[in-house]
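ESCALATION

Customer reports they have been waiting on this structure for their group meeting. Please prioritize. Original submission:
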Amino acid sequence: MNVREAKPGDSRQIAAIILPIIRDGATYALDPEMSETAAMAYWMGHDKETFVAEEDNAVLGTYYMRPNQAGGGRHVCNCGYMTHSAAQGRGVARRMCEHSLDHARSRGYRAMQFNFVVSTNERAGRLWQSLGFDIVGRMPGAFRHPTLGYVDAFVMYRVL
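Update from on-call: job pushed to the front of the queue and completed.
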């Protein structure tokens, strides 16, 4: 599996990954009704570097990286990751996170922070912890899950 910077020609495959996850509404604090244009502008915005994980020319996952804050907080990056439903359980998210950690170091970031990891997304939480992230904050009832109601969200952090 190769991870590389996204190209404009990847848009269709990226949309096929992110739109179902956004529409599901269970893991990202994004409007499930947002248009495809808005979703793509969010994921591939000018404030982000966007990457894809591919195998045999098929995009299996995508992630973005951006500074978490401006000014004095600019040395900490933030990332978002999504894996195609057909590729889940194959190590795609792990490979993308490993790539993002290396890329963040190469860009001079000193830490990585995930601002809003939904507590019911246990698989992601376990993966991030296995890659050295700590839960540094819990926001009780901060996310309205579409079937479970109000659930906690975590802030996760790792020094690079």
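Sent to customer with the following note: The radius of gyration is 15 Å.
Escalation resolved.
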